Amino acid sequence: MKASEFPDAFKDARQKEGVGKMNDQDDPVTMVLRHKEVRKCAHQWQAFQSGGDEVGRIVIPSEVKIRDTRQIPFEVDPPQHKSFRDILDPWFKRPLNEEYSSKITTIIEEIIDESLKSNEVEVVADFALKLQSRALTLLLNIPYSEANLWISWGTHVFRSDDSDLDADKANILYDYIDKQIDLAIETPSESLYSVLLNSEVDGEKMTKEEVKGVLILTFAGGRDTVINAVTNSIAYFAGNPKALAVLKEKPEMINNAVEELVRYFSPLTQMGRVATKDTHVCEHAIKADTRISLNWASANRDENVFETPNEVVLDRKVNPHVSFGFGTHNCLGATHARQILRILLAKLSQKVTSIATLDSKENIENLGEFNRKVGFDSLNVQFKK
Ligand code: HEM
Ligand code: EMZ
């Protein structure tokens, strides 16, 4: 398979059954595979909840064993969910400011220029992780130098080479965030930590535990998703060299191109919910207190919604993809992620004429009988001027 190809792992099950089953730590998941039902279930927060008592259970693989802190607003249901979103939404829209995007531009130009000087670049570690971590300093509004520490943690904060759920690694992040919260209490600044510590939700000051919950989500949720999106986009341009010239010629296509790449790659495969009562999805019985998942990756290849779903059509006009989720919990980091990707495409097309793939190792998620390529463990390329 070409490095730039990302097959649809769910086609048969989506067409025949509409659902697929997988086990995960003896807590099975019924994956909802069709676009229409994914959107419908995402709306039904009363029947399919994100909150619930068991923190970490909606993530697949479940993080129940490695996390006690509730991620906010991700593991909170309406109506409380809205109170948190009202505080967080304006902050997470800052990437639209000119000053913010010009700083992202500087970060991206520096990484591309450095990559052009090298004969071989390992994109995951030397390009995408650096870009993700450096850009995150802007989102948190803290000094740029802090990124070096996060880069040293590697691509995922809960997963390591040996384990999908690495408690020791998770503790590094939790301890770090605890320390940063205490520092922000001692010496307030303009950072996200300080802003949240001074915020009130429904008339009450946010607690340290709530602030920690937002920060864990910002570090974890915004990490491998962005790294996959950036790495896979570079694999796409390596496999489709003309696309860089097309975007250079027609920069007005870039916004559509970003949406299409994000649809095709679906950097976050799925997210779970817990059924609160006996119910049905696509005529399949779902028992109370069992898990379903909203399978964004499958919905994004639904042939009833997308023409030629397995092709990247950079100027696809109608593109109701659900890569950033749908409804209540739609991605809070989407503005930041989109700015990174738009500026990345603009600068790549201006500065790079072709990218040669030298070597690649795919990252395959094993989901029961389904094996889904979600990104790369490593991707070695050469960038050419
Ligand atoms: C929610 C995908 C980047 C923070 C979500 C959801 C998806 C998603 C599918 C919905 C989860 C659900 O319904 O349960 C992505 C993708 C990204 C990306 C594909 C990159 C290409 C980021 C970044 C951040 C972030 C950069 C922040 C640093 C969040 C938060 C939520 C969320 C806080 C929960 C929102 C809520 O519960 O109201 N993301 N994400 N994401 N994402 Fe992202
Ligand atoms: C959770 C999730 C958030 C989870 C919106 O997605 O991303 C995953 O990578 C993390 O492991 O804890 O933050």
UniProtKB/TrEMBL annotation:
Residues 8-19 have a biased composition (Basic and acidic residues). Residues 1-26 are annotated as: Disordered. The keyword Heme applies. InterPro entries: Cyt_P450, Cyt_P450_B, Cyt_P450_CS, Cyt_P450_sf. Keywords: Heme, Iron, Metal-binding, Monooxygenase, Oxidoreductase. Pfam families: p450 (PF00067). The keyword Cytoplasm does not apply. PROSITE patterns: CYTOCHROME_P450. Belongs to the cytochrome P450 family. This is Cytochrome. It comes from Polaribacter sejongensis.
